[in-house]
Design goal:
The complex is a heterodimer of chains A (329) and B (412). Chain A contains 15 helices and 2 strands. Chain A has 329 residues and is mostly helical. Chain A has one domain: MetI-like (MetI-like fold, Orthogonal Bundle), CATH 1.10.3720. Chain A has a two-stranded antiparallel ribbon with strand order 1-2. The model of chain A has no long low-confidence stretch (mean pLDDT 86). Chain B has 2 domains: 205 residues, Rossmann fold (3-Layer(aba) Sandwich); 126 residues, OB fold (Dihydrolipoamide Acetyltransferase, E2P) (Beta Barrel), CATH 2.40.50.140. Chain B contains 11 helices and 20 strands. In chain B, helix 5 crosses helix 6, helix 5 packs parallel to helix 7 and helix 6 packs across helix 7. Classes of the chains: A mainly alpha (329), B alpha+beta (412). Chains A and B meet through helix 10 and helix 11 of A and strand 6 of B. Bound molecules: adenosine-5'-triphosphate (ATP) and magnesium ion.
């Protein structure tokens, strides 16, 4: 609503205020509720549009595809809605989903579990490594802090894939790490590191650590350190103090950081593909294979939808807990 | 008013139905409080009580800056001791060294004869109540109070019993399930106090216990806090920059200035016999005159000041060479003000001037009298009916006088 119109309405309401008592009460209500201007509406609209265009629409398309079956056609799946002799038919195939859950080899379930395992373990690793880093960042002087931040962020200035290739060079049999260890006489023969789960963890932790550190750092900055002194004063040892005072206070940072690592790690494709072994098949690779190698778009879509559901659970839990905290405060 | 309240507070204390009288104290407790014995140099407590805390030559430096500088202090069992000083004088730093949050640069802290400088805070039998209370926001009242006890791995029944006792002590039984944010400032303070007392510490530290409360609640909580501390019988060191609070609550007070102790003594002792200009000015209000000593014999000292035409007479001798500079401190409530000259003074300890200003403070009025020398002297009068007639008003010519015993000679 343009400003002049708004002013006019408010003037009208004011005039009504001078009217009878019943009318006045209504008008008062109108005045207290603040008008949302069209500019403000526009600002809210942008992220909504973004979400609709780039999340909701693709999601619905994928969901639609997951309810069909493959066909040699363009696009390579059966239509859901067909018209024949004036009759509209809607056919929803659920076999992709049943196949995922009842596949005899259990390939899909196994790779989901494996992906969950890798993602959870990587998240924990990031948490254990990231917490001390975030702590140090929150404790040091601003000048040092800037340098430390640069060191933390700078690797992401180079391409992600390039950095993973660099890790391949470091981890391979005749790579830098093995060479140094051999030269120092610590090992006799090179350790097999590349194409193991170890390499996958190295890659994921290396890439996602900053996403863990940053929310933890912001949470640690807000920590009330007299609470830690109070815990010490009451006889709590450092470890006990950490878990009973610091962890609850940085809870939101821990959750946010964990989600920022867990969610992309679950569907990670590049890192396990380049660093991981052929034995451990993660869900990212299954998706790739079904989509590009087998050209089974419906099954690939179903795999993606199931993965999204798995991801939705921790997110919902997170927002529930956030809301509970907001209500508490 | 400031001054008068000070004296009232100090004077009222002995007559107060002291909490000590109501509640039986531990056997070792001395019912005489040092503040009760005016003018006594060494508190008799020192002979009866055993020292619990001995600090010697304690220094804390932050870089080149000495926040606490060579402090010596002995605190006796069952005492309430107040550290009083202006902002930034090192009170909190001293307290934090006792709690173990700061490591002294040098010096020793003996708690019951044992040096605790190297003992981490979680192993000290000292508990602190923080100025911000530092209640754990994620725990309710019961959990907050039980936190310290849980660290001792006591049985649950023992913990519950102790927590209930503490809740009763601070009258918070009906708030057990509340979280700190659901409590008012005064209630939070009670919980914080209960939490720091739950572990039955040998020494309780209070950092500005009333700092976060409004004036009304503060005055009410003072006596209650003393009551609780005396019930428990714990030795207590409190930090405050509110002199009134220190005077009402503490048995002894240490005045601190720039990291050093200026004077230690009972409230009355410090008020009546300040040992330096800083103490005299810090506690209550005071008229200070720059003087020189004319002569001093066994009974009398005669002192000259440019402010008065006649000399000041003191009722005792001064261990100073004639002609030495000194400062005379005179409390406003000890300066008599009258519209007629006082016959008894005989020339000394009196002067005349004009009332320049009157500050009406309800219970008392402060008269600011301009002397012919240009000096302004404050004098207080209580606003009671019996003084209502013949009171001086603005621009009246008045006569000021005081007793020889009222003057305090200060050399530093
Ligand atoms: N960690 C620190 N680093 C450097 N200087 C400090 C530190 N802590 C305290 N100081 C300095 O030491 C001095 C004493 O501080 P302290 O907190 O003990 O004062 P205080 O007497 O408690 O004052 P207030 O009444 O304002 O609380 C101050 O000048 C302060 O700036
Ligand atoms: Mg302080």
């Amino acid at each position: 609503m343009p400003i002049s119109a708004l002013n006019a309405t408010q003037a009208l309401i004011r005039r009504k205020l001078n009217a009878g008592p019943r009318r006045r009460r209504k008008a008062e209500l109108l005045l207290t509720r603040r008008e949302v201007t069209w500019r403000e509406r526009l600002v809210i609209l942008v992220p909504y549009l973004w979400m609709i265009l780039f999340f909701l629409m693709p999601f619905l398309i994928i969901f639609k595809i997951s309810l069909s079956v493959t066909e040699i056609a363009i696009p390579p799946y059966s239509p859901i809605v067909t018209f024949e002799d004036g009759a509209m038919q809607i056919i929803l195939h659920l076999e992709n989903y049943t196949f995922i859950f009842t596949d005899e080899d259990g390939t899909y379930m196994k790779s989901y579990l494996k992906s969950l395992e890798v993602a959870s373990f990587s998240t924990l690793l990031c948490l254990f490594i990231g917490y001390p880093i975030a702590w140090a960042l929150s404790k040091c002087r601003p000048a040092t802090r800037n340098i430390m931040f640069m060191l933390l962020i700078m690797p992401s200035w180079t391409s992600f894939v390039v950095r993973i290739y660099a890790w391949m060079a470091l981890l391979k049999k005749d790579g830098l790490i093995n060479d140094v260890l051999m030269a120092l006489g610590i090992i006799d023969s090179p350790i097999h590191m590349l194409q193991t789960d170890f390499a996958v963890y190295v890659g994921i932790v290396y890439c996602y650590l900053p996403y863990m550190v940053l929310p933890l750092f912001t949470a640690l900055l807000k920590v009330d350190y007299t609470l830690i002194e109070a815990a010490y004063d009451l006889g709590a040892r450092p470890v006990k103090t950490f878990f009973s005072v610091l962890v609850p206070q940085t809870r939101s940072g821990i959750i946010a950081g964990s989600m920022l690592v867990f969610i992309p790690a679950l569907g990670e494709y590049v890192i396990p593909e380049l660093l991981g072994g052929k034995g451990s098949i993660l869900i990212g690779r299954i998706l790739w294979q079904e989509f590009f190698n087998n050209r089974d778009w419906p099954l690939a879509s179903a795999v993606a939808i199931v993965m999204l559901t798995i991801l939705a659970i921790p997110i919902v839990i997170f927002f529930k807990s956030q809301r509970k905290k907001a209500e508490a405060a | 008013m400031e001054a008068s309240q000070r004296t009232d507070a100090a004077a009222a204390k002995p007559q107060d139905p002291s909490p000590a009288a109501k509640e039986p104290k531990p056997a070792a407790k001395n019912t005489h409080r040092p503040g009760d014995l005016p003018g006594q140099k060494a508190s008799p407590v020192e002979q009866h009580k055993k020292p619990i805390l001995e600090i010697s030559d304690l220094t804390k430096k932050f870089g080149d800056f000495s926040a606490v500088n060579g402090v010596d202090l002995t605190v006796y069992e069952g005492e309430i001791f107040a550290l009083l000083g202006s902002s930034g004088c090192g009170k909190s730093t001293l307290l934090r060294m006792l709690a173990g949050f700061e490591t002294p640069t040098s010096g020793s802290i003996l708690l019951e004869g044992r040096n605790i400088v190297d003992i981490p805070p979680y192993k000290r039998t000292i508990n602190m109540m923080f100025q911000s209370y530092a209640l754990f926001p994620n725990m309710n009242v019961r959990q907050n109070i039980a936190f310290g006890l849980k660290q001792e791995h006591l049985k649950k029944s023992v913990i519950d019993e102790r927590v209930d006792k503490m809740l009763k002590l601070v009258h918070m039984e009906s708030f057990v399930d509340r979280k700190p944010y659901q409590l008012s400032g005064g209630q939070r303070q009670r919980v914080a106090l209960a939490r720091s007392l739950a572990k039955e510490p040998r020494l309780l530290l209070l950092d500005e216990p009333m700092g976060a409360l409004d004036k009304k609640l503060r005055e009410q909580m003072r006596l209650e806090l003393v009551d609780i501390i005396n019930t428990v019988g714990v030795t207590c060191i409190m930090v405050t920059h509110d002199q009134e609070e220190a005077m009402t609550m503490a048995d002894r007070i240490a005045i601190m200035d720039r990291g050093e102790f200026v004077q230690i003594g009972g409230p009355r002792e410090i008020y009546e016999n300040p040992n330096c200009r800083f103490s005299a000015e810090f506690i209550g209000s005071v008229n200070l005159f720059d003087c020189t000593l004319i002569s001093s014999d066994q009974k009398h000292s005669l002192i000259h000041t440019d402010d008065f035409p006649s000399p000041i007479e003191l009722g005792h001798d001064l261990d100073l060479a004639d002609g030495m500079p000194l400062t005379i401190a005179l409390r406003p409530e000890k300066v008599y003000i009258s519209k007629v000259p006082d016959e008894e003074t005989g020339g000394s300890n009196c002067c005349e001037g004009d009332v320049e200003n009157i500050a009406y403070l309800g219970d008392i009025s402060i008269y600011y009298v301009r002397l012919p020398s240009g000096r302004l002297v404050a004098s207080t009068l209580p606003n009671v009916d019996r003084f209502k007639t013949g009171l001086p008003i603005w621009d009246d010519h008045v006569y000021l006088s005081w007793d020889p015993e009222s003057c305090i000679a200060l050399t530093i």
